[in-house]
Amino acid sequence: MKTPAKRIYNSASVPQEDCVFCKIVSGKLPSYKVYEDDRHIAFLDINPFSVGHTLVTPKRHGETLWDMDDHEIAEIFKVASKVSMGVVAAMNADGFRLMQNNGEAANQAVAHIHVHVIPNKMEDKGKFMNRLKLSGDEMAKVADSIKSEIAKIE
Ligand code: 5GP
Ligand code: ZN
Fold this sequence. Notes:
Bound molecules: guanosine-5'-monophosphate, zinc ion
Number of helices: 3
Strand content: 15-25%
CATH architecture: 2-Layer Sandwich
Helix content: 25-40%
Strand order of the largest sheet: 1-2-3-5-4
Radius of gyration: 15 Å
Order of helices and strands: HEEEHEEH
Number of domains: 1
Distance between the termini: 30 Å
CATH class: Alpha Beta
CATH superfamily: HIT-like
Low-confidence stretches: none
Number of strands: 5
Structural class: alpha+beta
């Protein structure tokens, strides 16, 4: 891990025992999970920018990208790439966006490292994307179809 010259302020910072994503990792809070390996999980964003919007997170708690070593950084982006293939296939999307927010100034709302995988259709091009709210049934269906597409990869 490298030592940054400056610290990042994050108002979302909480003690680890109160971290929402740690609770999702441990199963104390429910989620629509689409992928899991030894060190990562991926689950649907509760308030997606597009249907299929997925979050990839390391199981180990850390607040920002700077809390990961180079190997962990490489690994999470490899997982995000794999997850993106499942998301794009399941949603029949035409492209996808990766987003990774660090700190208050970058709108980071959950202070546990995560990479957003946001599928885009051609008709989304140039449009501002609003947050959506899907029913539990819709979320479960979307998660199932992403999970089965990810399972086909490799
Ligand atoms: P950030 O702004 O920190 O990069 O993104 C945090 C994301 O986590 C937001 O897109 C938000 O909708 C999502 N989120 C916040 N709380 C929960 C939760 O309890 N469950 C799930 N699945 N997503 C959440
Ligand atoms: Zn955490």
